Automatic annotation (TrEMBL):
Name of protein: protein O-GlcNAc transferase
Organism, as annotated: Tectimicrobiota bacterium
Enzyme Commission no: 2.4.1.255
Domain O-GlcNAc transferase C-terminal: 548-694, 712-885
Keywords: Glycosyltransferase, Repeat, TPR repeat, Transferase
Pathway the protein contributes to: Protein modification; protein glycosylation
GO terms for MF: protein O-acetylglucosaminyltransferase activity
Length: 918
């Protein structure tokens, strides 16, 4: 609403330049008196008589124009006043009143000219300045309008109308403190004006002066109890003051007087929602929308109420309607993002969050929400960027630091992650989540003891079943001693026994636990009993979605599943199965979890009959896989990835099996078979598996022969001393069991020219953890322990070829490393143990018929390694034999025949049994 034009002023009884004849003077005075008394008809008749007697009388013409204005006859008023000005052009009030009439006609530019002419003739005319301000405001010239009002007030400090007008323009200019002062002065001058108090209340609300605002609104209502705008404003302020019962009464007062007041229904809904009366709030918002369908804020609050009532689909519709009406509604973007995330539509949720961040880059909520979502979807770089920004925007938020810590951990920036978790603990030492996050980072970094202490701190704060299960699964990545291995294993067993005995159930272990007991396999024990105990913790996941039996005679549908169908050990072991399984008998479906865009993934896509990306949500993944109607679900690995581990508890195909990707039993009842090889398994190996053990004659992989293109580089390219006797152990550092240290130490002691090389850890800090152990166990040769930077592909083959001898760790030896080392003819010393995971290199040697470097005890291991490293003839002869025989390891079609025969037999058995259960 525009500022007000003050009523058109009438002159007093003293008239300038009146006609000298006494009769004209008396007639004019009588007309003016009637006019001032409100008798417009009599005044008009007298003005016209005066004009008959004295045509062109300027004051009579002017006041006849004023009279026409008062009757709403604006065009007539313009003619009369214009004629008066023509007769007597230097009367400032004539121009001022002409401006008023022109303004009433909406001819603001002409009105402004008239007001400026009046001011030029009569600079002290406060009304003209006020009305000039009003006309300027109508044309959007707020700064000029404010200046005009300011001048009116300077001329007449008690000019309440000008003060109110000035306040309204200052509000529009966002100069709220000045507006508050202007309204306050006006209220002091005219304390009986409800509108002024109401406007003062509005400004004070915007300034955050809520108590003062409520007083102003209350005063307005005292003056005019019918001022429902003031009652509405009071309700809003009382809501902000958390005086909810009073706010409710205020809105109900408005609605009793004006039941169609949409904003009041909205305000009442907001109060009811704050009181937790969600169903009533919903009804109020719906009434507001019925009255004003385009009321964006009402749609938004309705969405919020629906979401709070656990109705996400309806909430989503209301958020969408909010955004249709107001695409830039920031809070609706944030709200719908959260709903979409909960519904599992993570891609769309991220896009909405991004739009919110674009609208308000400095919004903590949007940055935090986007960062946490991207962390879940694996878009780690962008997640870290947004979570860093969230922590900057609100450095006191422990949640932001915890989220940042988790993302940095996923990005392998463990030192920074530890720093983020420590900051969260500093801010909120009572939050178990911060201590737990720090524990996981420290353990992953190789600092198990410190990490264990942090986990215990978390457990002291939170004794929930969830955290107890998580803590029970903690194992060191690099064990400091064989004693620690035994202690940790015993602790895991005690904890699991206690949890199983108590009947603890984890409903969604993928989200709530999120990791597996991966490192258990590296401790060198029979894991069957312990794996079965651990599996009992997750018995709630034993869900059967077994598909209907497919007709006999149709091709067997086999689904191969893993997160690691990429440039990875698992990808190398499995691509041959996918590519060459007999398509006359089998359909091949590849089920890839979060596949990257790399060449190996492209091979899986190319060779699959169907290539399916498995969703990250376990329930959705189950439904998707069951819908594929598979005969066989073949897990390339179970235990390396949380999603596939927990999926394996469900019955999703009549036949479910696993192979040596993670070479240890699963303990999971719904995994039927473990596919291995006669040469991999020792006698009595059935006792190592909860699954039925399947022993192929062939090694269980169709492994492609490497085809390097580049020539070999010299040692210097890999930071290896040219003249060193290189004992290379090119394995992941967590395979280096403390029991192996005695062998390594004896090599260093007996060969003073030996240099022991490992591949850098991932993360590098694992090398530091291993070196801390080595400083105790290999103290006499610690200066000859080296690390080579991590390399892949042909460069890794190159490194293998540069070694004098390769050392296979005990308890858990090489896998693809052995296949690639044998390709370059590199001799590997190996000591096969009691379990398959230490027997891969042995099985390769046996298949080649070359057993010279297979040993049976530590002394023989040391002697063989030193001989191969120092005796070039011995080394050369063994290398030659390996190169001559290694062809049997690669692209072995026999394994495809065995795999096909196994699938047919297993499927037939499942059909005969007539049940999916094993």
């Amino acid at each position: 609403m525009a500022p007000k034009v003050r009523s058109m002023p009438l002159p007093g009884r003293k008239v300038s330049e009146v006609a000298p004849r006494q009769r004209s003077v008396r007639l004019f005075e009588e007309a003016l008196a009637r006019h001032q008394a409100g008798d417009l008809a009599a005044a008009e008749a007298l003005y016209r008589r005066l004009l008959e007697e004295e045509p062109g009388h300027p004051d009579a013409l002017h006041l006849l124009g004023v009279l026409a204005y008062q009757r709403g006859e604006h065009e007539t008023a313009v003619r009369h006043i214009a004629e008066a000005i023509r007769r007597k052009g230097k009367a400032g009030i004539f121009h001022s009143n002409l401006g008023n009439v022109l303004a009433a006609l909406g001819r603001y530019s002409e009105a402004i000219k008239a007001y400026r002419c009046a001011i030029r003739l009569s600079p002290g005319m406060a009304d003209a300045h006020n009305n000039l301000g009003t006309a300027l405001h109508h044309l959007g010239k707020r700064e000029e309008a404010a200046a005009a009002f300011r001048e009116a007030i300077r001329l007449q400090p008690s000019y309440a109308v000008a003060l109110v007008n000035q306040g309204r323009v200052l509000v529009e200019l966002s100069r709220l403190e000045e507006a508050e002062e202007s309204f306050s002065l006006a209220a002091g001058l005219r304390p009986d004006q409800a509108e002024t108090h109401r406007r003062l209340g509005m400004v004070r609300k915007e300034l955050g002066c809520l108590e003062a605002s409520s007083e102003s609104f209350s005063r307005a209502l005292e003056i005019d109890p019918r001022d429902m705008t003031a009652a509405f404003g009071l309700g809003v302020v009382l809501h902000d003051l958390k005086r909810l019962d009073e706010a409710e009464r205020s809105f109900l007062r408005v609605l009793a007087a004006q039941p169609d007041y949409a904003e009041a229904h909205f305000g009442l809904g907001a109060v009811l929602m704050s009181q937790g009366r969600l169903a009533e709030a919903e009804e109020s918002f719906r009434r507001a929308i019925a009255l004003r369908p385009g009321y964006a804020d009402a749609h938004f609050f309705l969405a919020t109420a629906l979401r709070s009532q656990g109705r996400p689909e309806e909430a989503r519709e209301s958020y969408e309607e909010t955004l249709r009406l107001r695409p830039g509604h920031f809070d609706a973007l944030v709200g719908i993002s959260a709903v979409l995330k909960k519904e599992g539509d993570l891609k769309e949720a991220a896009e909405r969050y991004r739009k919110a961040v674009q609208l308000r880059p400095e919004s903590f909520d949007a940055r935090l929400g986007l960062g946490l979502l991207l962390k879940e979807t694996g878009q780690i770089e962008e997640a870290v960027e947004n979570l860093r920004e969230a922590a900057r925007l609100n450095p006191e938020s422990a949640s932001a630091h915890i989220g940042l810590g988790i993302a940095l951990k996923q990005d392998e920036k463990l030192d920074e992650a530890a720093g983020a978790f420590r900051e969260a603990i500093h801010l909120r030492p009572d939050l178990a989540e911060g201590h737990w996050g720090l524990a996981t980072v420290l353990i992953k970094r190789g600092d198990f003891e410190e990490g264990w202490d942090a986990a215990q701190a978390a457990l002291r704060l939170d004794r929930s079943d969830l955290l107890r299960v998580r803590t029970s699964a903690l194992l060191p990545v690099i064990c400091s001693s064989s004693e620690q291995v035994a202690e940790c294993r015993a602790r895991v067993e005690r904890s699991v026994d206690e949890l199983v005995r108590e009947g603890v159930v984890i409903r969604d272990p993928l989200k709530e636990i999120g990791f597996t007991n991966f490192y258990l396999a590296y401790q060198g024990f029979n894991d069957r009993e312990l794996q079965q105990k651990i599996a009992r913790l997750y018995r709630s996941q034993e869900i059967s979605l077994c598909p209907k039996s497919r007709p006999e005679g149709s091709r067997i549908r086999v689904g191969f599943i893993s997160r690691n169908f990429k440039q990875h050990t698992i990808g190398k072991f499995m691509i041959g199965y996918v590519a060459f399984l007999d398509r006359r008998r089998f359909e091949v479906v590849t089920l890839a979890v979060d596949p990257p865009d790399d060449p190996m993934v492209q091979q899986f896509r190319q060779h699959s009959d169907e290539f399916v990306i498995v969703p990250a949500d376990i329930a959705a993944a189950r439904e998707q896989i069951a819908a594929l109607n598979l005969d066989v679900l073949f897990y390339a690995d179970i235990g390396m990835d949380a999603l596939t581990y927990f999926l394996a508890f469900s019955r999703l195909a009549p036949v479910q099996c696993v192979t040596w990707g993670h070479p240890v039993t699963t303990g999971i009842p719904n995994v039927d078979y473990f596919v291995s090889s006669k040469d991999l398994e020792p006698e009595g190996a059935e006792d190592h598996y909860s699954e039925d053990l399947v022993r192929f004659d062939s090694l269980p992989t169709y492994y492609f022969r490497p085809r390097p293109k580049a020539a070999l580089m010299r040692r210097a390219a890999f930071l290896i001393a040219e003249r060193a006797r290189v004992y290379l152990c090119p394995q992941s550092l967590f395979k280096i069991h403390p029991d192996f240290d005695g062998i390594l130490g004896e090599i260093l002691r007996r060969d003073p020219y030996s240099q022991l090389y490992f591949i850098e850890g991932q993360p590098k800090s694992l090398g530091d953890a291993l070196m801390r152990r080595f400083r105790r166990t290999l103290a006499h040769g610690i200066d000859r322990v080296k690390f080579i930077p991590r390399v892949n592909g042909e460069a890794f083959l190159n490194v293998l070829a540069l070694a004098n001898v390769i050392l296979d760790p005990i308890h858990f030896g090489g896998g693809t490393t052995s296949y690639e080392a044998f390709f370059v003819g590199a001799p590997i010393v190996t000591m096969p143990g009691a379990f398959m995971r230490s027997r891969v290199t042995y099985a390769c040697y046996k298949k080649m018929g070359v057993m010279d470097a297979v040993v049976s005890n530590p002394d023989e291991y040391v002697e063989t390694a030193i001989r191969l490293a120092n005796d070039s003839a011995c080394h050369g002869e063994l290398k030659s034999r390996i190169l001559s025989a290694n062809h049997v390891l690669y692209e072995d079609a026999a394994v495809l025949r065995e795999l096909g025969a196994f699938f047919e037999k297993a499927v037939e058995k499942a059909r005969t049994q007539g049940t999916c259960a094993h």
